[in-house]
């Protein structure tokens, strides 16, 4: 209820105003009436009204003088001047300097209603500004304490927060939002918490709400109370969710810290709440997670084979194949028990694997993408759903890397094939696998096979077979090795298979060939 005082030396004017005002409808309460300026001054200082009806012509202390005095003592007081036509010029002077509005005698009910409603709107506007200023001030000290104050440093804390227990409830949208209308959401949360204040923590608690890290969409609710009972945290969470739903916001999950005994520990509480929130299952919405719950260990849960396949394909520069392997890899990241933390951890490992592969080619991610791994890692840890995480790679990182491999892939492939040909000439007697060779060069086997055939006119197996048979004929021409010894020296442990290959490629059996060159097997 807003408090009202009427100051007029004519009783019938006061009676008329009192009878014309719709007290309950407008939420007003009459807390006093005075017949002169001196009495009105003392009453106003005592009652501290929101609204004052004031006659300008009174004996002793008149309205203009009273306005001047009260403007110093009660600067937020709204005054509606009441005057006759003969005093109008005098009244305009008062209005110009101090009063909010005026009414002319005799006061008409419809004019009174219009002026009062206008005054109530002004009072609402002023209160909204005060609440906003109070929130901004509260958000400033809290944001500073949560993010920047080192433990042990002196930090400003409101007097009402100097003793008791402390906790932080940290919220993050369940799906990443490019734009979040927190300016609309925070006042609704304030309203919900005010409504619940008498019913939680014995009614003896304080709260402050602020946003943190605009890019990561965090809402922090700090709590201070004589005793923060754990059973009330869930009721608090339910109330906050009701406000979020009312504001039409996206779903938000919260992490709840352990209770602290010092306000200086609120920064530690923030980190606990953030850690708890990272343990949310990807499928959960509007969840409340507590810091004391144990996290699922991450080690041993990374799909290394799928990553290797993806990296091989990535170097081929084949956009369609890369997209397919990328989807398979991310599908392997996610299961029914995958948490936000695990998703971020997996994406981080993939990021650094791509960087490591690029470094093997004497280039860094920053050179081709414009962002280094630290910058990408920050983006990763701001995302908490699969689609938003994939978007970082698909829309930004991978196109730039594919472009790099597309420009350098052919040249690199030709260099690898040239080196491979020399290596095969020297190591033809060993067990050779294109898959293993491609892996050592961080290349996809299919891609290496295509480049190899284009440069040599033969596939890998045929090229190796030709080298081995050429070496076998040299051994038969220049030595007395038995046939099975020749087979072993050129890389064939199975002599029968060697003889079959020899006949198919050379057009005669080994015996026929040796007889033709005068080197029959002994």
Note down, in words, how this protein is organized.
By secondary structure, the chain is an alpha/beta fold. 57% of the residues lie in helices and 12% in strands. The strands form two sheets. Strands 2-1-3-4-5 form a five-stranded parallel beta sheet, with helices on both faces. A five-stranded mixed beta sheet has the order 7-8-6-9-10, with helices on both faces. A hairpin with a 5-residue loop joins β7 and β8 (218-225). α15 crosses α17. The radius of gyration is 41 Å and the shape is rod-shaped.
Strand content: 5-15%
SSE-based structural type: alpha/beta
Q: Which shape, going by the Cα principal axes?
A: rod-shaped
Radius of gyration in whole Å, from Cα? 41 Å
| Mean pLDDT rating | 83
What is the tally of beta strands? 10
Strand order of the largest sheet: 2-1-3-4-5
């Amino acid at each position: 209820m807003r408090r009202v005082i009427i100051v007029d030396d004519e009783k019938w004017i006061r009676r008329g105003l009192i009878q014309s005002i719709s007290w309950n409808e407008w939420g007003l309460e009459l807390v006093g009436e005075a017949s002169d300026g001196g009495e009105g001054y003392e009453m106003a200082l005592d009652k501290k009204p929101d609204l004052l009806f004031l006659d300008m012509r009174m004996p002793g202390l008149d309205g203009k003088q009273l306005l001047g005095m009260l403007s110093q003592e009660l600067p937020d007081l709204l005054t509606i001047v009441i005057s006759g036509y003969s005093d109008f010029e005098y009244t305009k002077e008062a209005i110009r300097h101090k009063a909010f509005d005026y009414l002319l005698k005799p006061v008409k009910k419809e004019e009174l209603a219009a002026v009062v409603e206008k005054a109530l709107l002004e009072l609402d506007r002023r209160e909204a500004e005060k609440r906003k200023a109070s929130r901004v001030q509260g958000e400033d000290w809290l944001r500073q304490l949560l993010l920047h104050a080192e433990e042990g440093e002196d930090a400003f804390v409101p007097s009402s927060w100097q003793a008791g227990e402390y906790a932080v409830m940290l919220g993050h949208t369940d799906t990443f939002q490019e734009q979040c209308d927190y300016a609309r959401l925070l006042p609704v949360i304030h309203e919900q918490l005010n409504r619940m204040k008498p019913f939680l923590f014995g009614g003896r608690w304080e709260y402050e709400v602020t946003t943190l890290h605009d890019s990561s969409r965090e809402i922090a609710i700090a709590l201070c109370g004589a005793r923060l009972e754990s059973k009330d945290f869930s009721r608090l969470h339910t109330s906050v969710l009701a406000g979020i739903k009312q504001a039409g916001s996206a779903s938000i999950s919260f992490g709840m810290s352990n209770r602290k005994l010092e306000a200086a520990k609120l920064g530690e509480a923030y980190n606990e709440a953030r850690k708890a929130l990272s343990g949310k299952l990807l499928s959960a919405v509007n969840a409340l997670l507590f810091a004391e719950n144990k996290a699922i260990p991450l080690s041993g849960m990374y799909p290394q084979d799928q990553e290797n396949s993806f990296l091989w394909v990535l170097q081929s520069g084949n956009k369609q194949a890369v997209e397919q392997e990328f989807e398979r890899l991310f599908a392997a990241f996610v299961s029914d028990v995958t948490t936000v933390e695990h998703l971020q951890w997996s994406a981080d490992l993939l990021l650094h694997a791509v960087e490591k592969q690029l470094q093997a080619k004497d280039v860094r991610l920053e050179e081709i993408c414009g962002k280094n791994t630290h910058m990408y890692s920050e983006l990763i840890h701001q995302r908490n759903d699969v689609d938003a995480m994939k978007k970082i790679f698909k829309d930004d990182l991978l196109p730039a890397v594919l472009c790099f491999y597309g420009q350098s892939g052919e040249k690199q492939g030709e260099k690898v094939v040239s080196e491979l040909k020399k290596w095969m000439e020297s190591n033809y007697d060993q067990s050779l696998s294109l898959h293993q060779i491609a892996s050592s060069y961080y290349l996809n086997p299919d891609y290496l096979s295509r480049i190899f055939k284009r440069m040599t006119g033969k596939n890998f197996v045929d090229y190796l077979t030709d080298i081995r048979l050429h070496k076998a004929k040299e051994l038969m021409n220049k030595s007395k090795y038995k046939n099975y010894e020749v087979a072993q020296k050129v890389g064939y442990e199975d002599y029968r298979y060697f003889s079959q290959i020899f006949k198919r490629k050379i057009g005669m059996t080994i015996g026929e060939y040796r007889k033709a060159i005068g080197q029959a097997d002994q």
